[in-house]
């Protein structure tokens, strides 16, 4: 199992050769649910339920700090997060220490579940970075 998981969404055309699009424009695409399940149990305690239209995405923004184990700024403001920097980070270590010491290797099943407020208008790719 990975120690850290970073997930973001990007237009498929942007990463498959359409040079007029920015492959680093990580829009939220009206994501309203993001859940990570480790062996059937949600990580962290419950999935994120987001609503970008009513500015209810602070848990997702906070995941940048907790998932990267940083208590200082990362130069992405809360307003910028919803306008092209929607990156979701999860610390999957059992003690949430994120590498300060070694943890036992763990094997199991990891599931990512995402739901959107409305149907996507174009193909979107999910980029997943897993740190082992």
Secondary structure layout:
Blueprint (H helix, E strand, L loop, with lengths): L3 E8 H4 L15 E8 L2 E9 L8 H10 L10 H4 L5 E5 L18 E7 L7 E8 L1
Antiparallel strand pairs: 1-4, 1-6, 2-3, 2-5
Can you offer a commentary on this structure?
Strands 4-1-6 form a three-stranded antiparallel beta sheet. Strands 3-2-5 form a three-stranded antiparallel beta sheet, with no helix packed on it. The termini are close together. It has 132 residues and is of the alpha+beta class. It has one domain. A hairpin with a 2-residue loop joins strand 2 and strand 3. The chain contains three helices and six strands. The model has no long low-confidence stretch (mean pLDDT 86). The longest helix is centred in the middle third of the chain and has 10 residues.
Supply database-style keywords:
6 strands, 3 helices, 132 residues, alpha+beta, three-stranded antiparallel beta sheet, single chain
In N-to-C order, the SSE pattern is: EHEEHHEEE
Task: Tell me the number of helical segments per DSSP (H or I, 4 or more residues long).
Answer: 3
Kindly estimate the percentage of residues that lie in beta strands according to DSSP: 25-35%
Main beta-sheet annotation: 3 strands, antiparallel
């Amino acid at each position: 199992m990975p120690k850290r998981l970073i997930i973001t969404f990007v237009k498929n055309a942007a990463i498959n050769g359409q040079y007029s699009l920015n492959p680093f424009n990580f829009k939220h695409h009206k994501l309203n649910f993001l859940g990570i399940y480790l062996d059937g149990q949600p990580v962290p305690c419950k999935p994120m339920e987001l609503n970008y239209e009513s500015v209810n995405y602070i848990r997702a923004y906070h995941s940048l700090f907790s998932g990267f184990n940083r208590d200082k700024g990362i130069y992405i403001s809360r307003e910028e997060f919803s306008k092209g920097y929607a990156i979701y980070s999860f610390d999957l270590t059992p003690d949430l220490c994120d590498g300060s010491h070694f943890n036992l290797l763990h094997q199991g099943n990891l599931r990512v579940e995402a739901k959107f407020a409305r149907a996507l208008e174009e193909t979107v790719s999910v980029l997943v970075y897993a740190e082992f």
